[in-house]
């Protein structure tokens, strides 16, 4: 199918369904779940591009929610992310595939640690925190097709209500992902085959996303934070186990 092995497509469909649910619940996490699993079945660069296209497609379904609920903090973070995405893409095309696979898994693990580990009295002012979030969002988006881990610590540790935090992350995804995909195309990294796979996976993503949105309306703010942190941890650990096994 589309030049991919049937086993790879089957793995991708299962990952897409789970990733869609996570994204609907948390506001991010589609690529965090999809890319680490998918890059074990196909070449890492192809997996990253499939993740980016999938993020953009699902983002189009949330334009109304974004306009209604997003916080203004998304704008400066997005501007910085756009500036640093080429740096991450350069790292992706430069590193050997095995190193790329390992670092993609570590991206998820690092975000999980930043979200759940108590920082005690260590705090960071809002503007520097936004700047770091913008840098890592862009770098991770270009390198791993996973901008979510770059911004998740800022929004999960911040004071925004879950609805606003979730919509703000969706805003950044919607703008950043097509730009990243275009950069991929200009550099000759992937193309129609990866786009076709993302389109084939989209129905599974939509179904998972619908269930995730329904679950979001039934959880408290604390439960939402715990659930999103667990998503980051489970995706990272699963990818590392499969990679090292």
UniProtKB/TrEMBL annotation:
UniProt keyword annotations, A-Z: Cell membrane, Membrane, Transmembrane, Transmembrane helix, Transport
Subcellular locations according to the entry: Cell membrane
Residues annotated as transmembrane: 40-61, 73-93, 99-117, 129-147, 167-189, 196-216, 222-244
Membrane topology note: Multi-pass membrane protein
Cellular component GO terms, alphabetical: plasma membrane
Pfam families (UniProt xref): TauE
Family: Belongs to the 4-toluene sulfonate uptake permease (TSUP) (TC 2.A.102) family.
PANTHER family in the cross-refs: MEMBRANE TRANSPORTER PROTEIN, TRANSMEMBRANE PROTEIN YFCA
Protein name: Probable membrane transporter protein
Originating species: Paraurantiacibacter namhicola
Upper classification of the organism: Bacteria, Pseudomonadati, Pseudomonadota, Alphaproteobacteria, Sphingomonadales
């Amino acid at each position: 199918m589309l030049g991919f092995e049937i086993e790879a497509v089957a793995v991708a469909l299962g990952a897409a369904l789970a990733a869609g649910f996570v994204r609907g619940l948390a506001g991010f996490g589609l690529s965090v779940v999809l890319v680490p699993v998918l890059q074990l079945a196909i070449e890492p660069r192809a997996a990253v591009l499939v993740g980016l296209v999938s993020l953009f497609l699902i983002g189009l379904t949330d334009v109304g929610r974004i306009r209604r609920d997003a916080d203004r903090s998304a704008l400066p973070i997005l501007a910085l992310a756009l500036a640093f995405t080429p740096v991450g893409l350069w790292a992706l095309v430069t590193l050997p595939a095995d190193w790329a696979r390992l670092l993609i898994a570590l991206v998820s693990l690092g975000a999980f640690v930043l979200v759940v580990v108590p920082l005690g009295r260590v705090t960071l002012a809002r503007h520097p925190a936004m700047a770091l979030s913008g840098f890592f969002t862009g770098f991770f988006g270009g390198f791993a097709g996973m901008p979510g881990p770059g911004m998740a610590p800022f929004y999960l540790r911040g004071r925004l209500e879950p609805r606003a935090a979730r919509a703000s992350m969706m805003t950044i995804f919607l703008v950043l992902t097509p730009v990243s995909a275009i950069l991929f195309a200009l550099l000759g990294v992937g193309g129609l085959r990866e786009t076709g796979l993302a389109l084939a996976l989209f129905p599974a993503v939509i179904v998972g996303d619908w269930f995730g949105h329904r679950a979001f309306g039934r959880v408290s703010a604390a439960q939402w934070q715990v659930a999103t942190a667990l998503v980051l941890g489970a995706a990272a650990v699963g990818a590392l186990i499969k990679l090292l096994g």
